[in-house]
């Protein structure tokens, strides 16, 4: 299982994924790295307002590769795909 921290993807002490600042760690998936994305809401009149798309993240107890049990934030698409072994 690959885990993400504030700097990015952790795999053999190499960081593969760098995020911009300002995103909340509580809204980031520990498996796929899905995080809030900012954009524009566009009305029919083409008027734009800023908005956020937030992933559906849940805090679940998971069994890691080394056998330890840890509470991690996982998005529902990773839970549904079976990428996480629940404790």
Written description of the protein model:
The protein is mostly beta strands. The protein contains 1 helix and 7 strands. The two termini are 14 Å apart. The protein is elongated and about 55 Å long. The strands form 3 sheets. It has a 3-stranded antiparallel sheet, with no helix packed on it. The chain has a single domain (3-81), classed as Ribosomal protein L28/L24 (Ribosomal Protein L24e, Chain: T, Roll), CATH 2.30.170.
- Cα shape: elongated
| H/E element order | EEEEEEEH
For the largest beta-sheet, the strand count, sense and barrel status come to: 3 strands, antiparallel
CATH architecture classification: Roll
- Secondary structure category: mainly beta
Number of helices: 1
N→C terminal distance:
14 Å
CATH topology label: Ribosomal Protein L24e, Chain: T
Within CATH, the superfamily carries the name Ribosomal protein L28/L24
What helical percentage do the residues reach?
Answer: under 10%
Number of domains: 1
CATH class: Mainly Beta
Going across the biggest sheet, name each strand in turn: 1-2-3
**Rounded average pLDDT:** 82
Beta content? 35-45%
Oligomer: single chain
DSSP strand count: 7
- Spans of at least 5 consecutive residues with low confidence: 11-19
Rg:
16 Å
